[in-house]
Amino acid sequence: MEIPWWRDAVVYEIYVRSFADASGDGVGDLPGIRQRLPYLAELGVDAIWLTPFYPSPMADGGYDVADYRDVDPLFGTLADFDALVTDAHALGLRVLVDIVPNHSSAEHPWFKAALRGEGRDRYVFRDGGDEPPNNWQSTFSGPAWTKTPDGQWYLHLFAPEQPDFNWRNPEVHAEFLDVLRFWLDRGVDGFRIDVAMGLYKAEGLPDLPPEDQAFRSESPIWGRPEVHEVYREWRKVLDSYPGERMAIGEVWTDSAEDLALYLRPDELHQSFNFAWLEAPWSATAFRKVIDDTLAAVTAPTWVLSNHDVVRHVTRYGEGLTNSTAGLARARAALLAMLALPGSAYLYQGEELGLPEVKDLPPEARQDPVFRRSEGSLPGRDGCRVPLPWAGAAAPYGFSPDGVGPWLPQPVDWAALTAERQAADPGSTLHFYKEALRARRELRGALPDGITWLDAPEDALVFTRGPLTCVLNCGTEPVPLPPHEHVLIGSAPVDGYLLPPDTAAWLHTP
Ligand code: NOJ
Fold first, then answer.
1. Which of 5, 44, 151, 257 reaches 20 to 30 Å from 96, CA-CA?
2. How many angstroms separate the CA atoms of 388 and 421, rounded?
3. Does the CB atom of residue 63 touch ligand 1 within 6 A?
4. What is the model's pLDDT at position 215?
5. Entry's SUPFAM superfamilies (predicted)?
6. What per-residue string of b and e applies to 337-362 under the rule 16 or more CB within 10 Å gives b?
7. Cβ of residue 136 lying under 6 Å from some atom of ligand 1
8. Where are the beta strands (DSSP E) in 148-304?
9. How many CB atoms lie within 10 A of CB 364?
10. Residue 502 backbone phi and psi in degrees, to 5
11. Average pLDDT value for the chain
């Protein structure tokens, strides 16, 4: 049976500032992406997701949008965007763009008007006197409220430069429906929805218990029941366009059941399954996430890294003396992820095995998390360092020679460039290409569910029709179950025993 393209797509996240710089200003841009589309087609992904490229003062790397219907000159023009979509489609790549509906930039004309006292009801303004109206904390540290010169306070769940919209105002609904149409009319295949479980705040804006400020499935801040109405409206718009347009929500929840609420048939098509990304290197933990997800969600997704979290090569290597174990585990986790039913989201650079850059100098760091926590939190710049494409020294082909990228690249990334790895059959880039090719070849032959086979406690073994996937998270080799041949391993596999920190796909007719 034909399934919609997104049901088993592999989507590649492009953090636009850090992908490829064609203009030579040290910042990635749309023409840079366009030039590199053949690389992505050859890698074997089905779609790209572009992080925000809209006009923005860049207080949060573009997640502070000043105009939802244009391209920031830093990244190019609308004509560049159109050309990018045309070329991507010609190469068989779908294009998702990021929609940021929880907040705008403080430079958005609506917020500037609100500060002048016009249309304040589009945002969340309250009287508070000398103290903020409640005890809510910003996700980026510090109070979630900032006082305006006339004494009122406005809400910002993120930086003060990102005022939260008031979704109880119908004007906000109408505006975003129009923004969706604007990009759908330009040919995008779908949207990634930023902070999709935000948007509505509980009536009366009640105080939170101090220990209860973190992301939650449902709280006065997150996961309000009213938010689902927004996605029902959006779904109608998406469904009114030809060609299986879709939306994936950035939804942080406590359980797969709560995630499933966003995926009811008249709401979002997909949501990121962060439980997979948050799981430690443990077969038991992975098994639980897989079981919980498949029990609750009919269109699952899997993701190991994105522009907000420590790269998984580094996460999995944390605390280990063996410096190559993080990469070995990252490759193994990728293979397990690609064997699961549903779609997979990759983050740029993971195909090169890039680690988190932990030693960025404080003066180079740009994430508001670092600034607002006064350096006590490193922030997310370490996973956003511009990609190394080619050459022996920075900027490694990211920018033209002689141009310094917006974040400095490590001196030892020459061995990790796409160019070097393309020439090495043992490279991580080569492994990603092979894994994606193997997945494509199996497309259509795999049932929707998985069957667990008996396995040692530290290993996962499951089948999907002719495919058996084995992942060894333990410290001892694991015997491989009966099979015809090994389709692919995350490291060399002899056919009988799977070494620790390794995964393999077996053909079992
Ligand atoms: C989630 C985005 O992925 C992150 O980068 C951003 O800082 C916040 N939402 C706020 O928009």
1. 257
2. 11
3. yes
4. 66
5. (Trans)glycosidases
6. bbbbbbbbbbbbbbbbbbbbbeebee
7. no
8. 152-155, 190-193, 246-249, 270-271, 301-303
9. 13
10. -135, 150
11. 96
Roughly what angle, to the nearest 10 degrees, separates helices 30-43 and 428-442? Answer: 60
Q: Supply 84's token pair.
A: 């990018």
Q: Phi and psi for 215 in degrees, rounded to 5?
A: -55, 135
H-run or E-run covering 472: strand 467-472
Full-model pTM: 0.98
Structure tokens at 313: 């090569």
Pairwise CA distance, residues 48 & 359, whole Å = 29
Q: Measure the CA–CA gap between 213 and 220, rounded to whole angstroms.
A: 10
236 within 8 A of 161, measured Cβ to Cβ: no
How much distance in Å is there from the Cα of 139 to the middle of ligand 1? 10
Q: Are 7 and 299 in contact (CB under 8 A)?
A: yes
Beta strands in 40-93 (DSSP E): 47-50
Rounded distance from Cα 43 to ligand 1 centre (Å): 27
Q: What is the pLDDT of residue 122?
A: 98
How far apart CA 32 and CA 435 sit, in angstroms, is 26
Which residue, judged by its Cα, is nearest atom 6 of ligand 1?
Answer: 63
Per the structure block, which two tokens stand in for 243? 């060609």
Q: Which pLDDT tens digit goes with each residue over 17-66?
A: 999 999 999 999 999 999 999 999 999 999 999 999 999 999 999 999 99
**8 A C-beta contact, residue 59 and residue 159:** yes
- For residue 13, give the nearest of 139, 194, 231 by alpha carbon: 194
* Ligand 1 contact, 175 CB (< 6 A): no
Tokens matching residue 144: 């979630």
> Is 37 in contact with 88 (CB distance < 8 Å)?
yes
In a 3-state reduction of DSSP, which class is residue 152?
strand
Q: Is the CB of 13 under 6 A from ligand 1?
A: no
The pLDDT value recorded for residue 217 is: 72
Q: Measured from the CB, is residue 308 less than 6 Å from ligand 1? A: yes
368 CA: nearest ligand 1 atom: 7
Show the tokens assigned to 403. Answer: 């141009």
Consecutive 10-residue averages of pLDDT for the chain (509 residues) = 92 98 98 98 98 98 98 98 98 98 98 97 94 94 94 97 98 98 98 97 92 76 96 98 98 92 97 96 98 96 98 96 94 98 98 98 96 92 98 98 97 98 97 98 94 97 97 97 96 94 95
DSSP code, position 44 = T
Span from the CA of 61 to the centroid of ligand 1 (angstroms): 9
Chain-centroid distance of CA 430 in Å reads 22
